[in-house]
Amino acid sequence: MYVPKQAVSNDELAQRGLDTSDEWIRTRTGIARRHLAGDHETTAQMAIAAAHDALEVADADPREIDLIILATVTSNHLMPSTACMVQDALGAIRAGAFDLNAGCSGFVYALSLAQQAIASGEHNLVLVIGAETLSRVLNWEDRGTCVLFGDGAGAVLLRATEGPAGIQASVIGSDGSGSNLLIIPAGGSAMPATRDTVDQKLHCIQMNGQEVFRFATTILAQATEQVVTKAGWQIEDVALIVPHQANMRIIASASKRLKLPVERFVVNLEEYGNTSAASIPIALCEAVQAGRIAPGENIVLVGFGAGLTWGATAIKWSVAPGEAAAPSYRNVWRWLLYRWAGLRSFTRQKARRMLVLFIRKADHLGRR
Ligand code: UT7
């Protein structure tokens, strides 16, 4: 996982002139701080940093990756996919790469696709990333949204295995009748950027908080129950639930509906707020690092968000705690591979440019 260094507290937001308070944000959401990207940090950079860690923890070769799926609503650009920049930076020369936009459910959607790509026999090693720079699409004068979100990235590697462990079941769903409830109205083909759209801050997140809240409290429990049934488990068999980190009250409500103690849920939104597609992999990573997940245990990842979308994944965890510890040293070989990837990218760009110049020159001489 990767989160920007800059942490901004609720009090700091109030001190910046926003009509809010630490008390309101904490009691209504559970959020105390959020980490915000610095000027030079982008979704691609954070995704690459998280991918570096995932490759190191899994001791995997980037050249063996078959597919990279980057779940995000804040791609570096509308086009191309940010996943392609990640592929280039990692030197993942065999990998296909694309972005997936399923709102805050994006990571769970991506896991479901990755699992099916592996189960089909087509792919062996798939890198799944959730990364967001939401601070760039927030209206910092809208207290109903800007206090909620933060930036960051998390990544996992999925590998084909013969064992009985790994992803046991997935569910994904969508209800587009709620597409207006959580939306960035402008910047797409329906409302291209104009001076007016910028002036009206239509390139920022708009949310009907109460409607999304109502949807979230129901769907979190429902999606969890569905995936547990699909996996052939009972709800009591679930050792840990890693939910999308939107609001502590939503998680508490799911805990009540599922009749599971709230301690069985991973909660880190106090520190990071809602990082959309990055929230589940960041929470998963922290749970692993804290030793909260043991091999053989059943865990559920569950998300919901813009679309409206939802999704859940049932996993029998198979990685021993030692194997999944935070990377503590730099692997020189992998470091060299990344330097090589940078050089390869640079020379390919230059060669492409020189080829264009050469063709133009030849064309010019031919016409003379
Ligand atoms: O990841 C995507 C999914 N997103 C979510 O899951 C978000 C779901 N929604 C929520 O978590 C909650 O609806 C919010 C946290 C966004 C809002 O909490 P709420 O308890 O639903 O508050 P509200 O919208 O009903 O607003 C209550 C009052 C309003 O004032 P009045 O009209 O009662 O005078 C708001 O203007 O709280 C006011 N308010 C604030 N006050 C201080 C709204 N935002 C703030 C704020 N600071 N930041």
Bound molecules: oxa(dethia)-CoA
Strand order of the largest sheet: 4-3-5-6
What is the assigned CATH homologous superfamily of the largest domain?
Answer: Thiolase/Chalcone synthase
Kindly identify the CATH topology of the largest domain.
Answer: Peroxisomal Thiolase, Chain A, domain 1
Strand content: 15-25%
Cα-atom Rg, whole angstroms? 21 Å
Shape: globular
Per CATH, which architecture of the largest domain?
3-Layer(aba) Sandwich
State the helicity in percent bands: 25-40%
- Total DSSP E strands: 12
Name the helix and strand elements from N-terminus to C-terminus, one letter apiece.
EHHEHEHEHEHEEEHEHEHHHEEH
Descriptive overview:
This protein is of the alpha/beta class and 368 residues long. It has two domains: 310 residues, Peroxisomal Thiolase, Chain A, domain 1, CATH 3.40.47; 42 residues. Helices cover 40% and strands 19% of the residues. It has twelve helices and twelve strands. Strands 4-3-5-6 form a four-stranded mixed beta sheet, sandwiched between helices. Strand 11 and strand 12 form a beta hairpin. The N and C termini lie far apart (58 Å). The mean pLDDT is 94. Oxa(dethia)-CoA (UT7) binds next to helix 2, helix 6 and helix 8.
